[in-house]
Specification:
about 140 residues; alpha/beta; 5-stranded parallel beta sheet; single chain; 5 strands; Rossmann fold; globular
Length: about 140
């Protein structure tokens, strides 16, 4: 199982994104490996908002529906608070660019025993996770 991040969703959605072609190759590779994708509700929210802002409501709704078959973890108050506490505990500049959505992703990855994310965000590797690749 591989976590699907907002950065990958957007890259797959937008042919003008710098990572679009790579994202398509990675998705094909993950499908060939038989990997299932997982996301959480904060990723859905973040991806919807980004796509809505850049491509309009109709596209955001379509992408959201297209993701409906994926296993989706609901972020409850406990998970939210754990992620916020993790963010607050980062010393100095470590993980400075990580968002709350990223922190939830890191917590979900650890909790589910997962090591790989389909993402183009270097914060995942800084947090100790592997990024999915096309090779």
């Amino acid at each position: 199982m591989v976590l699907l991040d907002t950065s990958a969703i957007f890259a797959l959605t937008d042919a003008r994104d710098a990572h679009h072609e790579e994202a398509v190759r990675i998705l094909k590779r993950l499908e060939e490996r038989g990997e299932e994708l997982l996301l959480h509700t904060y990723i859905l929210l973040e991806a919807f908002a980004l796509i809505h802002r850049r491509h309009g409501l109709r596209t955001a709704i379509k992408v959201s529906r297209d993701l409906g078959h994926l296993e989706t973890i609901t972020v409850d108050r406990v998970l939210h608070d754990e992620a916020a506490s993790w963010l607050a505990s980062r010393p100095g500049r470590s993980m400075q660019g990580a968002s709350l959505v990223d922190a939830v992703s890191f917590r979900v990855l650890r909790r589910e025993g997962m090591e790989e994310a389909f993402a183009f965000d270097p914060d995942f590797t800084r947090a100790g996770f592997r990024l999915a690749s096309a090779t």
